[in-house]
Design goal:
heterodimer, A: alpha/beta, seven-stranded mixed sheet, B: Rossmann fold, about 15% strand, elongated
């Protein structure tokens, strides 16, 4: 009897110890070995960023020239005013525009500069005196009798960051300083909206965050035309020669790019890297047959058939396989001798003076007619030198449009100076930098918040250290970018926003984040039950048996004591 | 009395104004896309699944014909039927018996072939999470203004699609992948077509906006194949895609056919299964969506009205080249086939070296055996 008692004891001890090992060592071990490595992410900061409150600051300096203010008013200036404009875009996004306006009178050197005969020269000499920092504006208020501006022009916008504003007739006599400032304020505001940022531009830049209902159709066209912000762009110039037997074309593309295109790209360097290449394609036809128009004695392509021109050519263009940057294609098509001259007609059947068209987010095509360079009795093939200045003029205009430099028509009474040799005015660059910074910040915040949401939702994804590091650096760059925008440092804001977007894209598109581990619950049971059930059933049953014996013994003890 | 006339005048002004804007902006507000992409996937291998490859190639052919260039098409074929040993007509894939239409063509570009067609690669293409060394032709480089057509075919079931006979993708994973694409704004609108058994189950779980889906059969139904070709020996196409191809052959790039026509393709009388579609997540009315919005690539164009007058003379680039010439490096070809590294030849020893360990050991062994067997007394004969 004792041996069965010992046996039973031994059995109970064995069961208890196995259960202890399974529960104390086995379960934690299984838990630790099946958990996925998830590095720590700054989730609270990311949630703060989801609620975006952007403040854009612009510094404006208003300089009163001689003749616009009376001497006693001059004593009250200099003064500084600041103005805030709040807009709520949606429940997560709000914008505030702050204009810090400083009023002062002109210095003697500035007065000399304003005495130049034409506005363009005045602009140049004003620029020589002082260089305005990125993101700021200087407005010179000139008296009504000035000869700088033509009769019907109220405002002249220069090539750098200056504008000339003519004071109105009603402000000639008997007004106080407050009246003068009130009179100037709406015009300065309109000027600011043209030269720095306007609400429509900034909300268009936020399109990644905020899906706006199609309001203004022109703004939709604008937002569809320009490429989205990207760290780099590839530009390809192609010369299409469908008839090498007749035309032997020479184009000095390297020199033309160096002279005309490179200055623009150098100026745009804070925004993105550009790489340029060029090629010549022989026997490349347009996909559409042009029709002969008797009234113009030329072949014409009408506006509806232009849409079908691009596709057959695109297949032959090729692309730089090494990078994933967006590509801008600029094609120069020289029609063959049998179909020359070739003109493009717009919807109103008028000939287009530039003889070129562009496609949003793709590039541009220009048709260059060469039949005027040679007479009818000439021995083919003819050597033709292409006038690169004319060609590059068109391509440069198309490049500006495709990169997002909007040349919307200025309001009446405004005269905008033609952009200089670099193809881009300084204030246009500032405008582009503002919208690009806002766009980068918006895209980076949506990327980071959706990444955090994704990682939170799917518990099975492994989060490596490098991803956590990218996310943290993206968050810090975003916070810095927002802070710099608030204080008005446009250059730094753009740089931080670019770093933020690079880091966030690298984190989001990391190849290790692919979630293939979707297990429906019944599959999870199907995997674990055959492994654990055969082991757990004997342990559980023996534990139950021990528990029932203990209970039995206690009941016996109770009946004994009773 | 005056008010209605005033109102009608205002209305006339508005109409005139909007007509002007319409002229200026053109086709911009018919659809919001500027480029088109297509991802065409055939998921089954083996010779008897010829019809799935023919399905995918026929959609590829239509899409290319209607204008989408190869750089914007990601074609994934799990097996090579054209060069299969059992193909009596090599380098062809036919879609109709009597070998009427060769859908393989001359210029097909397959981006993912054979064993590269896996669930992982498909999801990586969709979400963009490819390793940095992936070439451009294997990536889906769409942006927020791209319309994407996704076509899947193969063997499927209720809620899954089989890849390569060894793995499957579930409808939840597909829906999550589309959601990630939406979060990152990788598409403007997406058309999803699937030709498998119980195909409608694959689009049941979609929840992202701007998705339209078509399937060849409902849950519980099988998609059937069209007809076998006795010379090739297998079924050439599936019914749904056969009638889809017939429909698409009538579409040309300027066609105005819309999605409602596409929904009518292959009714139950022809297809035996009931094709289904899902448009509740799509924002536009399907009747206003053109077929060419997804299957073709009609570009929006704008006339360039402004030019910049450039008057600077062109800088001569030769000046820069002069400085470069002084520091010309000489280049030489690297040995293309370094034979010595491949074959691991030992270099020939020029000087005499004492014999190797092996030779020494061998001779010692021979001597030991000799003297052991014949005794040490023979030593004196040697020395």
């Amino acid at each position: 009897m004792a041996t069965t008692e010992v046996e039973r004891r031994r059995g109970q001890l064995a069961a208890l110890s196995i259960a202890a090992v399974v529960i104390i060592i086995g379960v934690p071990l299984w838990w630790r070995t099946t958990e996925t490595y998830r590095a720590w992410l700054p989730v609270s900061q990311i949630q703060e960023l989801a609620n975006l409150e952007l403040q854009l600051s612009a510094d404006v300096e208003v300089v009163f020239a001689r003749g616009t203010v009376t001497p006693e008013q001059q004593k009250k200036i200099p003064l500084t005013l600041s103005q805030d404009d709040e807009h709520v875009v949606d429940e997560d996004t709000s914008l505030r525009y702050r204009y810090e306006t400083r009023y002062r009178t002109a210095t003697i050197m500035e007065e000399d500069a304003l005495n130049q005969p034409t506005a363009a020269e005045a602009d140049l000499s004003l620029h020589m005196l002082s260089e305005s920092p990125c993101g700021s504006l200087v407005v010179y208020v000139v008296p009504e009798s000035t000869s700088l501006l033509p009769e019907d022009v109220e405002v002249y916008i220069g090539q750098r960051r200056t504008a000339l504003l003519r004071i109105g007739t009603q402000m000639r006599v008997g007004r106080t300083l407050d009246q003068l400032l009130d009179h100037l304020e709406p015009r300065i505001k309109k000027l600011l909206q043209l030269m720095s940022f306007s609400h429509t531009d900034i909300t268009a830049a936020l399109s990644d965050r905020v899906r706006l209902s199609p309001g203004n159709k022109e703004s939709i066209a604008d937002s569809m035309r320009a490429f989205k912000s990207s760290p780099g762009y590839e530009i390809t110039f192609s010369l299409l020669n469908p008839d090498p037997k007749s035309h032997r074309l020479h184009w000095d593309i390297e020199g033309a790019v160096q002279t005309f295109i490179q200055p623009l790209l150098t100026k745009l360097e804070p925004l993105a890297n550009f790489s340029i290449d060029s090629q010549i394609l022989y026997y490349a036809m347009l996909g559409v047959n042009p029709r002969f128009d008797n009234s113009h004695n030329a072949y014409t392509l009408n506006a509806d058939s232009l849409a079908h021109v691009i596709n057959p050519v695109e297949a032959r263009l090729g692309s730089n396989a090494a990078s994933s940057n967006p590509v801008l294609n600029f094609l120069l098509y020289v029609p063959d001798a049998n179909h020359s001259p070739l003109y493009i007609q717009d919807r109103k059947k008028q000939q287009v003076p530039s003889n070129a068209f562009h496609s949003p987010r793709w590039g541009g095509i220009m048709v260059y007619n060469v039949n005027s360079f040679y007479g009818p009795d000439v021995a083919f093939p003819v050597d033709i030198n292409i006038n690169m200045a004319k060609v590059m003029g068109v391509f440069l205009a198309q490049l500006r449009l495709l990169l997002g430099v909007q040349s919307s028509t200025p309001p009446p009474g405004f005269l905008v100076a033609p952009c200089g040799s670099s193809g881009l005015a300084d204030w246009e660059l500032d405008r582009l930098m503002w919208s690009r910074s806002v766009e980068n910040i918006a895209t980076a915040t949506t990327t980071i918040t959706s990444l955090a949401q994704l990682l939170d939702q799917i518990g099975n994804i492994v989060i490596n250290d490098n991803i956590a590091q990218q996310v943290s650096s993206a968050v810090t760059s975003l916070q810095l970018a927002v802070a710099e925008l608030e204080s008005g440092n446009l250059g730094f804001a753009l740089q931080y926003s670019k770093e933020a977007i690079l880091a966030s894209e690298r984190a989001f598109f990391d190849p290790s984040l692919l979630h293939l581990l979707y297990f429906p619950d019944d599959q999870k049971f199907a995997i674990y039950i055959p492994l654990f059930l055969p082991m757990c059933v004997p342990i559980l049953l023996s534990l139950l048996k021990i528990a029932s014996e203990v209970r039995q013994r206690r009941r016996d003890k109770q009946t004994k004591t009773d | 009395m005056k008010i209605p006339t005033l109102l009608s005048l205002f209305a006339a002004c508005f109409v005139a104004g909007s007509a002007n804007i319409e002229e200026n902006v053109g086709q911009f507000f018919s659809s919001g896309h500027t480029n088109n992409w297509a991802v065409l996937v055939c998921t089954s291998r083996f010779w008897f699944n010829y019809r799935h490859v023919a399905n995918t190639l026929s959609v590829y052919r239509s899409v290319k014909r209607l204008g989408i260039p190869d750089s914007h098409i990601v074609l994934m074929l799990a097996d090579d039927m054209a060069c299969n040993h059992r193909n009596p007509k090599p380098a062809t894939v036919f879609s109709h018996k009597n070998m009427e239409l060769n859908v393989y063509g001359d210029d097909v570009e397959v981006d993912y072939r054979g064993y590269e067609v896996t669930v992982e690669n498909f999801l990586r293409v969709l979400t963009g999470r490819l390793p940095p060394s992936t070439p451009r032709s294997k990536r889906l480089l769409s942006d927020d203004r791209s319309n994407i057509l996704i076509y899947l075919t193969g063997h499927g079931g209720n809620g899954f699609l089989k890849f390569q006979d060894s793995e499957e993708i579930s409808n939840v994973e597909l829906a999550d992948a589309f959601e990630q694409m939406w979060q990152k704004r990788r598409y403007n609108e997406l058309l999803f077509i699937i030709d498998t058994c119980q195909g409608a189950s694959m689009y049941e779980r979609f929840y992202s906006p701007n998705l339209m889906a078509l399937a060849s059969s409902q849950v519980g139904e099988d998609s059937l194949s069209h007809q076998p070709d006795l010379a090739i020996g297998v079924h050439l196409m599936d019914r749904y895609t056969f009638y889809l191809l017939e429909f698409l052959e009538d579409i040309h790039p300027a066609s105005k056919a819309n999605m409602n026509d596409l929904f009518k393709v292959c009714p139950k009388s022809q297809c035996v299964s009931t094709p289904g579609h899902r448009t509740d997540l799509f924002l536009r009315d399907p009747g206003s969506v053109l077929i060419t919005d997804f299957f073709g690539s009609v570009r929006k164009v704008e006339i360039t009205t402004e030019t910049i007058s450039l008057t600077d003379p062109i800088k001569q680039v030769e000046e820069i080249a002069v400085h470069g010439e002084q520091e010309k490096e000489t280049y030489s070809y690297v040995d293309q086939l370094p034979v010595s590294e491949i074959i691991h030849q030992k270099p020939k020893q020029k000087d005499w070296h004492p014999p190797d360990g092996f030779i020494l050991g061998l001779w010692t062994l021979i001597l030991l055996v000799f003297f052991k067997s014949y005794g040490a007394k023979h030593l004196k004969h040697i020395f």
